[in-house]
Design a protein that fits this description.
The protein is built from two helices and two strands, in the order H-H-E-E. It has helices spanning 6-34, 43-47, and strands at 75-77, 85-87. The protein has a two-stranded antiparallel ribbon. The termini are far apart. The chain binds iron/sulfur cluster (SF4). Iron/sulfur cluster (SF4) binds at residues 50, 61, 64, 66-67, 78, 80, 86, 90-92, 94-95.
């Protein structure tokens, strides 16, 4: 039988706690990448005139306040369309300029 000291238990706990934030970040990124792409024919997308290619180069998902995709990703999450990814080059009528 192996004896585990209190010190070993504390060290293992500290190691697990240190890894938790990384696991959460990796999990968030993995989930975002697994989300389906928004279909422009989705009723909510149609209502907001969503398109995969913005008609205005100055207004696109990648520079919208509501976009949470990675800076160099082609697709990413948007708070208007939970559970879906929108195109970084996309656009909808809810576009909001980024602040700061
Ligand atoms: Fe793109 Fe519209 Fe979402 Fe902004 S609100 S990220 S423009 S889909």
């Amino acid at each position: 039988m192996t004896n585990v000291t209190r010190r070993q238990v504390l060290l293992m706990s500290a190691g697990a706690a240190a890894c938790l934030p990384l696991a959460l970040v990796d999990g968030r990124l993995a989930r975002a990448a697994d989300m389906p792409q928004l279909d422009p024919d989705n009723p909510q997308a149609k209502a907001l005139q969503y398109t995969h290619e913005s008609p205005n180069p100055d207004k696109k998902c990648s520079n919208c306040q509501l976009y949470t995709g990675e800076p160099d990703a082609a697709w990413g999450p948007c708070s208007i369309f939970p559970g879906k990814q929108v195109a970084a080059e996309g656009y909808c009528s809810s576009w909001v300029a980024q602040t700061g």
